[in-house]
Amino acid sequence: MHIQNYNPAGKNQPNQRTEREQNIPARERGTFNKNPGQSFQPDNAILQQLLQLIQQLLQQCSHQPDDPKQPPQPPQPQEPKPVELTPNQQSNLRELLNIEPNAPFVVQVLDEDGSGTVSVGDTAVANGGITGGEIARKTLTADDVAQINQTKGSVPQELTDNLQKWQSFTGGPDEFVSYTTQQSCFCPQDFTRPINITESNGQITSAVYADTNEQVPDNVRDSLQTVDQRFEQLQNAYENGAATINVQYDPQFGYPTSVFIDQSQMIADEEVSYTISDLGIALP
Q: How far is CA 76 from CA 69, 73, 79, 212, in A?
């Protein structure tokens, strides 16, 4: 059974809730909304204290002590320092890594042996692009080092030495030189088939296809070069600063056995690529 309190004094009895509010300090009781339709709103100072307490608890939880049972992690190896490159070396390195001259990439040579110079075994890297990360990495060979250190417009000593070696074996008036050559290009098949060539006194005296022994057409023969002319072609490529020059020489006679020349990476289908094999010299 519900018993309702009876107030004989009616409106003259003091409000007990009001008295309790008065006994509570304003800082602790907050602000009571006298509108019964709205919720209780605490004091801003109390909210700030609660937020600070929560932040302190979160910081303590995020700084957990190291587990003594876990073994210490070994230090990560540091990458070698880069070699200081000249502008010419920078340009040559971009060509080696097939990076356009004005492309937004950074190229470096990591000094693996600590010599302070570009040397065999160092690592060439390129970074940049959209992500800014590494896009190319290459361990340098002896040929790579020679290409990076090559001075534009100068002929490398390797070409000079092999040319002298070749001239020491050839040049006699009654001497015959025979070999097989084959070039690679975007051209008709008549130009890319293996050809047997005979030279005498610095002139091509015979040119036949190696597979059928038939004479090559005149337009193909007119495009052929003697070994001496191929040396001149290499020298011109170096002096004119060709973008890429890859060449291998015969260790005995010095003639070029494999050649690739790209004058400019901005021009398509102007590359020179050929091989020379089975060379023989017939002395009188």
A: 21, 9, 9, 63
pTM of the model: 0.50
Helix (H) or strand (E) holding 56: helix 44-62
User: 3-class DSSP state for residue 273?
Assistant: strand
Which helix (H) or strand (E) segment is 183 a member of?
strand 176-183
- Calpha distance 148→92 (Å, rounded): 5
Instruction: State which H helix or E strand residue 195 sits in.
Output: strand 195-200
139-181 pLDDT, tens digit each? 999 989 988 988 767 889 999 999 999 999 887 666 899 999 9
Q: How confident is the model at residue 241 (pLDDT cuts 50, 70, 90)?
A: confident
The angle that helices 227-239 and 157-169 make with each other, rounded to 10 degrees, is: 170
What's the one-letter identity of residue 216? Answer: V
Helix (H, G, I), strand (E, B) or coil at 118: coil
Report d(CA 136, CA 124) in Å as an integer: 8
Q: How far apart are CA 91 and CA 96, in angstroms?
A: 9
Amino acid at 248: Q
Per-residue confidence (pLDDT) for residue 279, from 0 to 100 = 95
Strands 195-200 and 176-183 turn out to be antiparallel
Q: Find the length of the chain.
A: 284
Burial of 188 (0-12, 13-18, 19+ CB in 10 A): exposed
- What phi and psi values does residue 104 have, to the nearest 5 degrees? -80, 65
Round to whole Å and give the CA distance between 255 and 180: 13
